[in-house]
Each structure stands twice: as structure tokens, then as C-alpha cells.
């Protein structure tokens, strides 16, 4: 239902991304090398992408994970990784939103977030959570989208043990 709602609300083709889309995902993500320095101790690889396609937080179900691609003229221009009913049944967790580097600052990300919030609200969710890294541009993006900072959160550790910290942010879907 989420995909069909988004496809209705957005001027893009929306589809669930799969392993066969890994090369297109890799090309899009390679346009954001700074993003990956927060998570990885190496440039993003196809193996990293394949892991991301199926990775889930504890206590969540594979059926609730949506790694979505947004296409314009058959080209992947944005992606979203979202887990429904996490950390509770009334919440959704936005793990990633990324827009093709050549199209950044054209409103595509904000348009996708707005549609995502509307679609999630229609499906009964009360809040959308995210934990972007401690990066000014990311913080500004989420603030513009109506997210409010709740505090710092440990997202995990890099392979070398370095902690990965983000700012837990929340936006209400009840307004």
C-alpha cells in the first residue's frame, strides 16, 4: 500500500529496490562520498549496498522494510530506506533518504518526505523518526522537513570500533 500511495502522490515512478538494482544504487550513492565516511572506513561498495537492501533493526520484520527507488525518465534519482512499525507499531524509521547529487537542492528530497509523511499518516502511523549524522546540511534538511531534534543516539560502530552518532529526530504525523 505504501508504494502505491507514494506513486499516486509523487511525479516519479516508485518501486521496491532489489539486488538487481545494486549497480544503479551504487552509482547514486557514490555521488555522496561524505555520507559514507560517517558509516564506513572505505568507499561504498556493491557488497555494502546488497547488505543495506536487507539489513533490519532488532525487533523488526523483513515485511516492514521498504528500500524504495524514485525514478524519473527511467533513471534512479532518489532512494529511501524506511522500516515500518519501528521502534513501535505507531512509528516508522527513516534510515536513509538520498537524492542524485546532480539534483540536490531542487526540492526532490523535501517532496519525497512530504509525500512519505502523508502516506504514513494515511496508513495509521503517528510519527516518523530519523537519526541523521552530525552534519549541518543533513540537520538543515530534516529541520526544513519539520523534524525536531530529540537528542543524540548511538547508531552503531564502524569496523574500527569508532562510534557512529546521529541526532534522533521526530516529526509528528497527527497534524
Written description of the protein model:
There is one protein chain. This protein is an alpha+beta fold and 175 residues long. The chain has one domain (2-125): Gcn5-related N-acetyltransferase (GNAT) (Aminopeptidase, 3-Layer(aba) Sandwich), CATH 3.40.630.30. The chain contains 6 helices and 7 strands, in the order αβαααβββαβαββ. Strands 1-2-3-4-5-7-6 form a 7-stranded mixed β-sheet, sandwiched between helices. A hairpin with a 6-residue loop joins strand 3 and strand 4. It is globular, with a radius of gyration of 15 Å. The chain starts with a helix and ends with a strand. Residues 12-169 form the N-acetyltransferase domain. Pfam families: Acetyltransf_1 (PF00583). This is Acetyltransferase (GNAT) family protein. It comes from Ligilactobacillus ruminis.
